[in-house]
Amino acid sequence: MLGGFGRSGSTLLERCLAECAGVTGLGEVLHLWERGLRDNELCGCGLAFHDCAFWQGIGERAFGGWGAVDIAEAVTDRQDVVRNRHLAELLTGWYPSARRQRARRLMDRVNALYAAAASGEAGLVVDSSKHPAYAYFLRRARIDLKCVLVVRDPRGVAYSWSKVVRRPETGEAEAFMPRYSTVAAVANWSLYSVLFHALTLLRVPVKTVHYEDFMGDPRAVVEDILHFAGHPVNTGDTDFIQPQSVLLGAHHTVAGNPMRMKTGELKIRLDSAWKVEMPAKARRVAGVLSLPLRLVYGQHGQK
């Protein structure tokens, strides 16, 4: 699972991983139930979820068809159980009676879903849900969970979340990704980082990947992650990654950054616009609030 607060390059990283032999990228499975199953939003391949043969195949193998899933129940179960404020429950596995049955049903669904996704040629399944509460929930799923925490300079993250970004997967509907204040963005960036690092105390392998390193040497970072996941890397597997570009086909990802729908040659470049365009006050606020973790990550010297 790819973790970390959004706008840190995780979508491009998942796309690169999914281009490798034996790897399947699923996108943000956390949101599959509402955005795919209920709202029928576009898959990364460009087709509506219910028109995508890939996802229809998974639904058939997992549940005997998506029609067998109670959509309203599935959405409510996920939204009620997987919350950061319920972290104590997710840690211990002890849920109050109001959520116990919901958690059990959700676990049954995700077990069936991942098993169906891993069948066939997929030796490694990548879920870019990023949410720490979901990672804590998945500790008890029937999967070999390994997490990659994607970290970007929080000032760049905060600046990116301040921009207006349209969600193309909603089709003709005019919908936009949420926006966060500088304080909220840095607070989430810090919380997500700490919670993912804490997973190591629970014997969940966690690897930290820096956005800046990925942009600087994408092939080396992708191969390093594959080795971390125990997935074989053969000669030529990552030839689609060049120092400044990557050649991508269509991937069947649900939810996530709009670039999940782009195909062909994509330029790889470090996005450092925040250093010039971010208001000075916001940059200082983000820098001060994130200083403790930036010291840990060695980002304190970056201007």
What would your notes on this structure say?
With 303 residues, this protein is mainly alpha-helical. It contains 14 helices and 8 strands. The chain is globular and about 55 Å long. It has a single domain (2-297), classed as 3-Layer(aba) Sandwich (Rossmann fold), CATH 3.40.50. It has helices at residues 10-18, 32-38, 53-63, 71-81, 87-92, 97-118, 132-138, 154-161, 182-198, 211-216, 218-228, 274-277, 280-289, 291-297, and strands at 2-3, 23-27, 124-127, 147-151, 206-210, 241-242, 245-248, 264-267. The chain is 45% helix and 10% strand. Helix 4 (71-81) crosses helix 6 and helix 8 (154-161) packs across helix 13 (280-289). The strands form 3 sheets. The protein has a 3-stranded parallel beta sheet, with helices on both faces. The protein has a 3-stranded antiparallel beta sheet with strand order 6-7-8, with no helix packed on it. Strand 6 (241-242) and strand 7 form a beta hairpin.
